[in-house]
Amino acid sequence: MHPTIETRYLNLVEELGLGRREEVSTIIPLTGGVASDIVQVIVGDQRLCLKCALGKLKVDEDWRAPVHRNRAEYAWLEVAAQMIPESTVALFGRSQQSPCFAMEFLEGDDTYLWKTSLLNGTLNVDEAISVGQAIGKIHARSASSAFSTEPFRNRDDFYELRLDPYLKFTASRHPAVAAHLESLVERLYEASSVLTHGDVSPKNIIFRDGSPIILDAECATMGDASFDIAFCMNHLVLKAVHLPAVRSELLNAALEVWGTYVHYVHWESPEQLEAKVCELLPALMLSRIDGKSPVEYLTEENRQVVRKLSLKRLQTPCISLERLMTSIAYQLENDR
User: Fold this and answer.
1) 13, β-bridge pairs
2) Cβ atoms of residues 158 and 79 within 8 Å
3) Is the dihedral of CA 76, 185, 332, 60 positive or negative?
4) What does the pLDDT look like over 159-177, one tens digit per residue?
5) Which domains, ranges and CATH numbers included, belong to the chain?
6) What is the pTM of this model?
């Protein structure tokens, strides 16, 4: 590790009162994210996870974002701790001097990353149900007039982290659907009905004792509920393309996320929200192929499959998620 980076974490430990720098015995960089530096730190007999936001994200394209997003991320984790205490990580403080914070290092025999489990072909439908419940509880409670939106009035950060690199950048590569994608950008930018996480991906969900702990809320903002649901379903659909042996199970899991979540919807018509998810899902699928952050596990052949499928569904939208999943399954089996 570069000495300057190591010093930053030693300073953070002392600033947050977690120990003295001479008590730090180990600093181990962790992998998996592109927007932050994350390390495991051992201070005395305590194991911690420290996270610092990056201004230049670790992708091939030029993708930059304000580091103050770290405030909204920490605030989302605090809100989640109140709303879904069974599915949250312990927090140990956020720096006032740098875009960094400290939290519990998640480990244990009954602890696993959902992405790793899914890519290994291991799927328990209860996982999808519990993720739908967690998102639903947060959206429902944040839609209340009593909810304080002050920490999450940061739609411009959401634009820089999600709307521009995913949808707007993809629109520049696909003129045939550019107007459609641009209209989605406008709708999502203006929305503020619920507290959205912005990155509900299996790579950010750790299961512990059967409960999902959702991390990496760097994109958290008041926004449109359709984004979190479509974003999560998108990852399950892409894995269904990648893993034909468990394809039907993964597509069913995507439907279970929605089927569980929809029982919490009270701020708008469930039918209206479902139609928005149906519209957004193929756009996000295409953006993980031709946006600034392409998914890493698909072959070029499968990328072409997703591209063709997404463009077709963007040009001929569904209004039912069940019909959309049936259509996707059919195309994956018969239209390669």
Assistant:
1) none
2) no
3) negative
4) 999 999 999 999 999 999 9
5) 1-105 (3.30.200.20), 107-336 (3.90.1200.10)
6) 0.92
